[in-house]
Structure of FAD-dependent monooxygenase:
Amino acid sequence: MRILIAGAGIAGLTAALSLHAAGLDDIRLVDAAPEIRPLGAGINLLPNAVRELAALGLDEAVGASAVSTTELVYFSRHGEVIWREPRGRAAGHRWPQLSVHRGKLQMVLLAAVEERLGGQRVRADARVTDFRLLPTGRVQVNLAHRTGGTTTTEADALIGADGIRSGVRRVLYPGEGPPVWQRQVVWRGIAKIPPFADNRSMFIGGDRTWKVVAYPIAPRPDAAGLVDTNWAVARTFGPDEVVDRAEWDRVVDPAKLLAALDGWVFGPLDVASLVTAAKAPFEQAMVDRDPLPRWTFGPVTLIGDAAHAMCPMGSNGTTQAIVDARALAAAVAGHPEVDTAFTAYERERLDRMTLLQNCNRALGPEVVVAMADRASSVTRPGPSASALDRELAEVSRRYAELGGFDVAMANTDSSYSVRRRPGPGRPTPQETGS
Ligand SMILES: Cc1cc2nc3c(=O)[nH]c(=O)nc-3n(C[C@H](O)[C@H](O)[C@H](O)COP(=O)(O)OP(=O)(O)OC[C@H]3O[C@@H](n4cnc5c(N)ncnc54)[C@H](O)[C@@H]3O)c2cc1C
């Protein structure tokens, strides 16, 4: 059975490795990028995603260039600690939480695909523009290339892992339009600064309008004693504010942010110094996608951002893309027909992802910053400190459960390590490995 994966990002490459580990070997990937290069900035992998990478034998390779995060601290804009919680191993997880450069993660996955599946499996400069089901039951896929030319290819199944602007999704939902703007602008950058705290902490702080996120993505300082530190600053616009979005999607001078962030200090971290140390911060609209009623249409399905792109709250975008890929491969291994496998995958994942998308639109776990800001601004007696603490703890607990990374759920072995049996029958659970 030939499986074509649109997109060689995190979801697509993990799907290829997981399908291969499940016993399938006729797998091809196409990607719109002219070449697969280590692009992006920092991302976080929660323990439930690291468990799946461990099942593929890749946790150590990814971990080698990542930070094993030990703590998450929320601050008010005035620098008071609102909430702090241990993360990853420090919180009792079997697998760590990893903060890593997206491009480094992608290159580890790509190298594993080339080594395990063989070279020539990933074709760059091939954008999926259209597809149709043939009377034979196969899928014919149209690809566009930078030369302006087009080609077609055929497969028994098509997996749309082609991100928030997915071409596969556009064919399935032609009237949907562009991603949905969430009335926020976000600036992102990487700054080389002296390590803050224990060089394993993630700091998030702000108020109801401005939010700052900062965490290191290099496990140790360079020769100059500096550490690559990922940051993002988001500004929320009120419903009546008029916003000119025409100038976004560009590199900006970080000085642009200084008026808003001047004097912000989170414990050992001076926010203004962090932001101004970044080389080329990028300014863009914060967008996501509406939840979909279904991802699977016969032998075609969606995974990762193509299925459920969500606002970047709570470190879940990449984490859930990895879990999707593993769940999909396990479903394919467990069903003789690809259509029923894709439907089973959707049944397992769609409802939870819809809840997560909606939760992230309501700020996800980072709502604690807004809650604390609101509590500090009420003039009549607000909630007592201990009542607020209980509320914040409950937000954190519910979100971990929703994302599948609370200790009880994430400490069990991966249930997605299965191998396809020749012919009909149930898959055999197996030890980890490729
Ligand atoms: C260049 C880049 C940089 C990013 N940087 C960050 C970051 O710094 N921080 C962060 O939180 N998230 C970042 N993201 C998004 C993040 O990778 C995803 O939210 C998450 O990892 C889910 O991964 P995904 O594989 O579903 O989507 P993606 O990682 O977006 O991968 C989608 C892949 O599909 C390819 N593609 C797109 N359209 C087509 C098409 N029509 N046909 C074939 N291929 C197509 C893209 O080239 C890409 O390789 C970035 C994504 C990209 C593509």
Notes: The chain has 13 helices and 23 strands. The longest strand covers residues 180-193. The mean pLDDT is 91. Residues 338-361 form the longest helix (24 residues).
